[in-house]
Structures are given as C-alpha cells and as structure tokens.
From TrEMBL:
PROSITE patterns: HTH_HXLR. It comes from Phyllobacterium zundukense. Residues 15-113 form the HTH hxlR-type domain. GO terms for molecular function: DNA binding. GO terms for biological process: regulation of DNA-templated transcription. InterPro entries: ArsR-like_HTH (IPR011991), HTH_HxlR (IPR002577), WH-like_DNA-bd_sf (IPR036388), WH_DNA-bd_sf (IPR036390). It comes from the Bacteria. This is MarR family transcriptional regulator. Keywords: DNA-binding, Transcription, Transcription regulation.
Length: 126
C-alpha cells in the first residue's frame, strides 16, 4: 500500500493515521475508552472493570488520554476526594468506531482464539 497524500493539501494520510493510532495504542487505552463511552467512571470503578490492570498503569493511561484531550478528569472537593473520568466531546467522535468494533466482534469474535493473560495483576478470585 502506498502512502496516500491528499491532493492540494500535501497531507500524508499514512502519517496522519499513524498519529491517530498512537493516540489509542497501548494495551488498555481502547478498553478504557470503550468503558467511558458508556458512562462516567470513578477511578476505583475503572480499575475493577478492567481485570489485570495495575493502579500504576491505569493512572498512566488515563493521564495520557487526558493529555491528548480524549478523557476529562473532574475532582470534587469532598472528603474523601472524589474523581470522575469521562470522555470528551472530541472523543465522542470515536463512538461510531467503537460501535463498529463491537458489531464486528459480535460477528467474528467466537472465531478468534482466546489468549491467556500473562501481564498485569491477577483478577480477584483467581
């Protein structure tokens, strides 16, 4: 496949798509975005909803997503402090992509061999 350049604009779409993929690359970012596309989560809820993720890795991934403008973090001045994470309006634009991935998985997911998880913390009860 050759690099596509948008006529009259000099935009290399291959490079632009690499930038887009980099925003969501990593083991956990898509899963975080998929969850946040459904509703607002608190940090502890996200950690429980993602088996195998460590507190350190969840914090790092959320910080990267926030820095890229895909996730917003709201701190409430309460005791104990409450922090909520939500996807931004910019990230809402990924909703159709996440829905298409869900549709694809519902059709073809059973044909994909399951891989054992070898990284991250063990889910509770294991």
């Amino acid at each position: 496949m050759e690099n596509q350049t948008m006529p009259d604009e000099g935009i290399n779409m291959h490079e632009e798509m690499r930038r887009a993929f980099a925003l969501l690359s990593g083991k956990w970012k898509l899963e975080i975005m998929w969850l946040l596309n459904q509703r607002v989560y608190r940090f502890g809820e996200l950690r429980k909803a993602i088996p195998g993720i460590t507190q350190h890795m969840l914090t790092a991934q959320l910080r990267e997503l926030e820095a890229d403008g895909l996730v917003s973090r709201t701190v409430f001045a309460e005791v104990p402090p409450r922090v909520e994470y939500a996807i931004t309006p910019k990230a809402r634009g990924l909703g159709p992509t996440l829905e298409a991935l869900t549709t694809w998985w519902n059709e073809y997911g059973k044909s994909v061999p399951a891989k054992p998880s070898t990284r991250g913390r063990k889910p509770r009860g294991s």
